[in-house]
Specification:
Blueprint: H1 2-15, E1 27-32, H2 36-48, E2 51-56, H3 59-69, E3 73-77, H4 85-93, E4 100-105, H5 110-118, E5 123-126, H6 131-151
Parallel strand pairs: 1-2, 1-3, 3-4, 4-5
């Protein structure tokens, strides 16, 4: 028994790679958030869920970062000043890798969910953010994105905007 323990310890310190399973890579998530409280909740959840959280300030920056990292999930605050959420969600959801856009909103109802889905979004999470709600939404979005990517299925094309 002692020999086995020593061999394991020796391999850990000499091989550079531990004999235990490696940690899974962190998954990139891009977030556009207004309130500091919501940022803290997202940071806490990202640490618990092994997410690589990228906080950004604008829709343009979110698109750029999400495309560079192939981020499967984008969190968008409906209360972002200077951005009309419908247009923003449409452009974020149109990313080449078809990211799942999760809308964070103080108002959540069936009408809002339908509007979001029509524009290519994935889910609405109520604000103020609660760790269990945002964690569930991110996990479900990741699951959906992974299945859609592996089967070659894409989110339905968003219809052209009517004037």
């Amino acid at each position: 028994m002692r020999g086995n323990v020593w061999q394991i310890l020796h391999s850990v310190f000499t091989s550079g790679t531990p004999s235990r399973k490696a940690l899974p890579p962190r998954i990139a998530v891009v977030a556009i958030v207004v309130s500091e409280q919501d940022r803290q909740v997202l940071t806490s959840v990202s640490n618990q869920e092994l997410l690589e959280l990228h906080l950004v300030e604008s829709c343009e920056e979110a698109c750029t970062v999400a495309n560079q990292l192939t981020a499967p999930v984008i969190l968008f605050d409906r209360d972002l000043p200077g951005a009309e959420w419908r247009t923003a969600v449409r452009s974020l959801a149109a990313s080449p890798h078809r990211a799942c856009v999760v809308l964070m909103s103080g108002v959540v109802d069936d009408y809002l969910r339908q509007e979001l889905v029509r524009r290519g979004g994935y889910e609405v999470v109520p604000k103020p953010l609660r760790p269990e709600n945002i964690s569930r939404a991110i996990r479900l979005a990741l699951s959906y994105w992974t299945i859609a990517a592996s089967t070659g299925a894409a989110k339905p094309d968003v219809p052209a905007r009517r004037s």
